[in-house]
Specification:
Blueprint: H1 4-10, H2 13-16, H3 25-28, E1 47-51, H4 58-71, E2 79-83, H5 90-103, E3 110-115, H6 123-133, E4 139-145, H7 149-154, E5 167-169, H8 175-189, H9 193-206, H10 217-227, H11 231-244, H12 248-260, H13 268-284, H14 289-301, H15 309-316, H16 320-332, E6 336-340, E7 342-343, E8 348-349, E9 355-359, H17 362-373, H18 377-386, H19 388-407, E10 419-423, E11 429-436, E12 439-445, E13 464-469, E14 474-476, E15 479-483, H20 484-490
Length: 498
């Protein structure tokens, strides 16, 4: 049976055209800042998949796309949007799509926007069915999923159906994106005249500059020097980013409270929504909530430290295999990720070596810690930013997460193929080791007032290195010392990160 009323309600542009945007909940909530994502080319005859965590703006992206398609001349009735959280089976999905297709047989081009497709079991078979039915001759499919286990593993089961090269990430905003898109709002609402003016100048200067980490150190240092005059402004913005992370809804919530309501806080409901999504996704994957909590607790307590999965499994009194299984699900669901150590002698990952586990976003850390401790998010955040050691670990996690976004391409260049950390038998570490076309580069994060270039000791065969500081800048032999917020503000994301 087709729920025609529900389908019509999910596609209000069939009735009101572009005017739907004035009333759409996803678009109207994107205030005070509407964070733009990169536009993607939607090819005829292709299946496109967007992978990313919940609350990151995938639905908003789809709804904004609807408006742009209609504005570009696509008839509103040729665009179908379905939120599959409300569907319970492939049969319901097939019936809904068939209902739409039967009414658009004479259309030159149709668009199927399937939101949270991973909510439907064996969704990949339904996409295969659509492709084999011939829909892709005139249509394009854009599907999103928060639980990336299924798109990553099952997406490979539909080769030759137009999915190759059409997978993208929608992740929390990078610090660069946060700066470029929040500067205008802040310049209008910050009372200090000088800061307002310099934020506008920062946006202009920064928008024309990016780092290519494979370039020579002289070129990189020259780019950094152009942004150095804005060190104080970027330091201020980075502090905001460490509070909100890159989740658009959290950023808007905090900035609205701070600058429109004069209430500098984040209410517990905001972090509770994220935690409920995490627990809900794990439950749907038949993962025990108690074990998920224990594992999250273990990650928080050891944040930024290296340890073995065996040690973690003993702590939570579960098998080594169980810990690996849960961590893999959490990484595929964009909750946390594992950073492996690299062995330069064997030229491969230390599969049995110590690992580090980070959250994809600083606000995810704050939310999980609030959930585990029962404390208000604002108190957790304040405590984290005042603890120098923990703050250093948070910043390290932000840097690693950004480097993932800088280099990753779905399937063909996953993070584990180019990004690791390093430690030797004496216990000396390099926070990040990254493979580039011309060799390896190393990055050490020292988020403290005083840094020394000599702390970046040559303990591994690196072509060049960066020491990310709190305030210092210098260029030495094979190493650049640069404030972390300047480095991150210049670091772009890959073409496959929207």
């Amino acid at each position: 049976m087709v729920k025609t009323g529900e389908i019509n309600d999910q596609n209000p542009w069939w009735r009101s055209g572009q005017e739907f945007a004035r009333y759409d909940r996803s678009l109207s909530q994107a205030t005070p800042i509407f964070f733009e994502r990169k536009e993607m080319t939607i090819e005829r005859g292709a299946i496109h998949i967007l992978r990313g965590p919940r609350q990151v703006g995938k639905t908003t992206y789809l709804k904004d796309l609807v408006g742009k398609l209609i504005g570009g001349g696509i008839p509103a009735r040729d665009i179908l949007y379905l939120s599959l959280d409300f569907f319970v089976s492939r049969r319901e999905l097939r019936n809904a799509v068939s209902y739409f297709l039967d009414s658009r047989r004479d259309s030159d081009r149709i668009f199927l926007l399937l939101d949270e497709i991973t909510s439907v079991d064996d969704w990949n078979l339904e996409l295969k069915y659509l492709a084999d039915r011939g829909i892709l001759r005139t249509g394009s499919v854009l599907a999103t999923g928060s639980n990336a286990v299924k798109p990553k593993e099952k997406g490979e089961l539909i080769p030759g159906r137009g999915i190759e090269g059409n997978e993208y990430y929608v992740k929390p905003l990078s610090f660069r994106e946060f700066v470029l898109q929040s500067a205008e709002f802040l310049s209008l609402h910050i009372p200090q005249d000088e800061l307002r003016v310099t934020l506008e100048s920062l946006k202009t200067e920064l928008s024309a500059l990016t780092l290519d980490l494979d370039s020579g150190l002289d070129e990189i240092a020259g780019t950094i020097e152009k942004v150095l005059p804005f060190s104080n402004e970027l330091g201020f913005l980075f502090r905001l980013y460490l509070i909100t992370g890159g989740l658009p809804g959290v950023i808007n919530h905090y900035l609205s409270n701070r600058y429109l309501k004069n209430e500098e806080t984040i209410i517990s409901l905001v972090s509770e929504i994220f935690v409920r999504d995490v627990l809900g996704d794990m439950n749907r994957l038949n993962k025990q909530e108690t074990l998920t909590r224990l594992l999250l607790s273990g990650i928080v307590e050891r944040y930024g430290s290296r340890y073995s999965f065996s040690k973690l499994s003993r702590t939570i009194e579960k098998t080594h295999a169980t810990v690996i299984d849960y961590l893999q699900f959490m990484e595929d669901s964009f909750i946390s990720f594992v950073l492996y150590a690299y062995d330069f002698n064997r030229k491969t990952v230390k599969a049995k070596g110590d690992k580090k586990v980070f959250f994809f976003d600083p606000f995810m850390f704050h939310s999980v810690k609030s959930y585990l401790s029962g404390r208000e998010p604002r108190d957790v955040i304040a405590g984290s930013l005042e603890d120098e050691d923990l703050l250093g670990s948070l910043v390290e996690g932000v840097v690693v997460s950004h480097l993932r976004m800088y280099g990753e391409i779905p399937l063909m260049r996953e993070c584990s193929t180019f990004l690791w950390y390093y430690y030797n038998k004496q216990g000396r570490e390099i926070d990040v080791v990254m493979r580039e076309p011309k060799g390896f580069l190393g990055i050490e994060v020292k988020y403290q007032r005083d840094t020394d270039e000599r702390s970046m000791r040559r303990i591994a065969p690196l072509r060049k290195s960066f020491l990310l500081s709190k305030m210092d800048f210098s260029k030495g032999e094979g190493c650049v010392v640069v404030p972390v917020e300047i480095f991150l503000s210049l670091l772009p994301v890959s073409s496959k990160n929207l």
